[in-house]
Amino acid sequence: MEFYATCTPGLEFISAREIEGKGLGRVIELREGRGRVIFESEYDMIPSLNCSLRSVERIVLLLARERTSELGGIYRAVKGIDFSFMRPEWSFAVRSNRLGEHDFTSVDIGRVAGQAVIDSYMEARGVRLKVNLDSPDVIVRCDLIKDELLVGIDMTGDEGLHKRNYRVYQHPAPLNPTLASSLIYLSEWSHEHTLLDPFCGSGTILFEAGMIARGTPVCKFRRDFAFLKFFGELPSFEERDVELKLYGVEKFRKHIEGAELIARYVGIYPEFIQGHAERIGEYFDSVDFIVTNPPYGLRIGKKGIIEKIYAGFLRAASSILKERMVVITSETSIFEKHARDNFEKIEKLEVMYGGLRAGVYIVR
């Protein structure tokens, strides 16, 4: 069967590697820059797909792929799908997404596709399916990306896989855990090596790294997946007992205390230091890997402050880094200026994150 996974636009290849590397499917196509990976897998793998993939936002069982840019084409594509697998007493909702220039809205797509589902089911089983926009039994996804329509059954649910449910402390600007995992995969870090986040906040990067190393399932701390309507129970997993060498530096004590709350909840214990990223050379003689999400202008306010932080951080990092550093930031010109002053090998990937164009840098 065909599926598509949604992920960070620009890092689709990371999710593709994870899907194939974990033996969960065979990648057919990447929608580069659009945050979609289309792949083949078995129906029975749906629970494992949702519980094992850390770089993916959502798993959708693909029912139709069509070329269209008109509402009439959307209606025909959806009406042609056999929805008889749904029980007559179940309710449904259409969640639509539209990218590109069209003379209609996402709301229009949802309205037309919803009617098509009702008409298709009525013809097949003589029953009018109930619509429930708030808590449906089944979510039908309709994504129109320019002139490509993807229609499928959402096997994750309204809450994406980034909702890990382990954040017992809420940082004001937390990093998306699926993106954090993608950055860790990109760094090629493994648990035998030290990992430092010099701007750790509440520790998302470090906790995701620990869970990757241990094989902690995404479903460990949540039970509200859409696939449970079809499968009834979560798969079982066995975590690995590995030693972790995780370190975080954070300026504010309240965030360290919050991270320590999360550590006790998840059972992963990085070493946290209250300090400044510009002074990591004073705290560490060397580290193997650095993965971090430094502050952007929106969070700091003044470019001068940003430049001072980045200059000091990159200078200090160059004195202790042994292997590789991965950084995501929207302050690309400032980062590149000071990275070139301190490192020779710098690779850049362009991504979309939180509505912002950002750069992901791999520094060796």
General description of the model:
The chain is α/β, with parallel strands linked by helices and 364 residues long. It has two domains: 2-154, VC0802-like, CATH 3.30.2130.30; 177-363, Rossmann fold (3-Layer(aba) Sandwich), CATH 3.40.50.150. Helix content is 34%, strand content 26%. It has twelve helices and 15 strands. The protein has helices at 12-21, 46-52, 71-79, 106-125, 177-187, 204-214, 228-231, 253-266, 280-283, 297-300, 303-320, 332-342, and strands spanning 2-6, 26-31, 36-40, 58-67, 91-99, 130-131, 138-145, 148-154, 195-197, 246-250, 271-274, 287-292, 321-329, 346-353, 356-363. The strands form two sheets. The protein has an eight-stranded mixed beta sheet. A seven-stranded mixed beta sheet has the order 11-10-9-12-13-15-14. Helix 3 (71-79) runs parallel beside helix 4 (106-125), helix 5 packs across helix 6 (204-214) and helix 11 packs parallel to helix 12 (332-342). The longest helix is centred in the first third of the chain and has 20 residues, at 106-125. The model has no long low-confidence stretch (mean pLDDT 96).
